[in-house]
Amino acid sequence: MSSQNKTAKPNTRQDDLDQFLPAGTPLTNPPTKHDSMPDPEKLLLETEEAPAILDRLNIFPFDWRVETPRLMEIYENSRDPGWSPSKLPWHTLDVEKFTLEQREAIAYWWALLSVFDASGPAVFARAMIHAYEIHEEDAIRKCFLSVTRDEMNHEEVCGRAITAMTPGGPLGSYEPKTTVGKLARNNIEWLYHNGARYWNGYKKAVEHYPMPILFSSFLFGEVASATLFHSMHESTEISVFKEAFKHIGRDEGRHLSFCLALLKEVLPRMTDEDKLIVTKQFRAGFVFLSGILYEPPEDFWQLPKSFLPAQRIIEEVAREAGFGVLTIDKRYENWRTAVVRLKTIVEPHGVLFPALPEIDVDGEDVSFDADKIVPIF
Ligand SMILES: [Fe+2]
Ligand SMILES: [Fe+2]
């Protein structure tokens, strides 16, 4: 041991230097040589104030304040939604088992859903950017990101279902093979026409209304979607769709929690004027979302005379194929239950509920502004 200690001489700095910089290598001077370090106190006196950021909408400057910790908790739980569209049991979907008519009818329902659910990623991404621009708390920005992510999954399911049933569809390169398919195609073109009008209204609305009003409108959409997917999960017999509805419904339930957590904070502080806007937005939400939850009212939906009779035929075909599109009576019951639930949430905060005569709900008569609609799944 002692002889080893004698021979193992520790490396000196010079040894290290010699290893990397053999003797004779010319040294290069550093670009700057400091005679002395600046005095920080003196430097501080010389600093200049940065120009103020005066833009009405700008994502800078940043801060990470959290005003609604509950939102942060829900966000934390949403990091892993626990499912993925690509891992659903698509291999169990035997397309050949369905007639051409049935495939076109099932794809139609997914195309109808896409007006609401496939618009989700763009709608919430826009809301997220807006939340940055108006310097909303970190928790709100994050909850929009989480919803955007979920909606991207829902959009993917719409796309996978439509592509499996009608490759290249719903419009594009898919040529309808049956009369039902041709009716479906025409209806989808009209649905997308209305979707485009919705998007134009939404883009204006998102910048026009303060966040609490936006959230009340989102709330309506989330109540609607949670209800819809829950019942579709129960009524469909096609296993991959049953599974998809279960997961999508759970996501929508989480979106509903986001809305409720925020509204619990903001509703009690809302002015009467803002509460009236919420009442109007609820009517707008009802009208827009009835497009899938019930039947599209004329207040917003521009549709040809053939639309409803065609939709009823197509849905009947899908139902016969085991795809559980709800009957009109079941839809009425479902939609009414969801809306009444919403009414009981907001009324204690002094928000008046609009009259929804279509499903026999009493309330305030309010005007409808198709130009500024916010609701979304
Ligand atoms: Fe969704
Ligand atoms: Fe949602």
Short description:
By secondary structure, the chain is an all-alpha fold.
Describe the structure.
Helix 9 (211-235) packs antiparallel against helix 10 and helix 9 (211-235) runs antiparallel to helix 13. The chain starts with a helix and ends in a 31-residue tail after the last helix. The chain is 61% helix and 0% strand. The protein contains 13 helices and no strands. The protein has a domain at 182-359. One fe (ii) ion binds next to helix 9 and helix 10.
The coarse overall form would be: globular
N to C succession of SSEs: HHHHHHHHHHHHH
What is the arithmetic mean of pLDDT? 91
Bound molecule types: fe (ii) ion
Coarse structural class: mainly alpha
Count of strand segments? 0
Number of helices: 13
Low-confidence stretches: 1-6
* Rg, Å, rounded: 29 Å
Task: Tell me the β content.
Answer: under 5%
Main pleated sheet? none
Give the fraction of residues assigned to helices: 55-70%
Cα separation of the termini: 76 Å
Short descriptors:
mainly alpha, disordered N terminus, globular, binds fe (ii) ion, 61% helix
Q: How are the SSEs placed, and which strands pair?
A:
Elements: H1 2-7, H2 13-20, H3 40-46, H4 69-78, H5 100-117, H6 120-133, H7 138-165, H8 179-208, H9 211-235, H10 239-266, H11 272-293, H12 307-320, H13 328-346
Helix pairs in contact: 4-7, 4-10, 5-7, 5-8, 5-12, 6-7, 6-8, 7-10, 8-12, 9-10, 9-11, 9-13
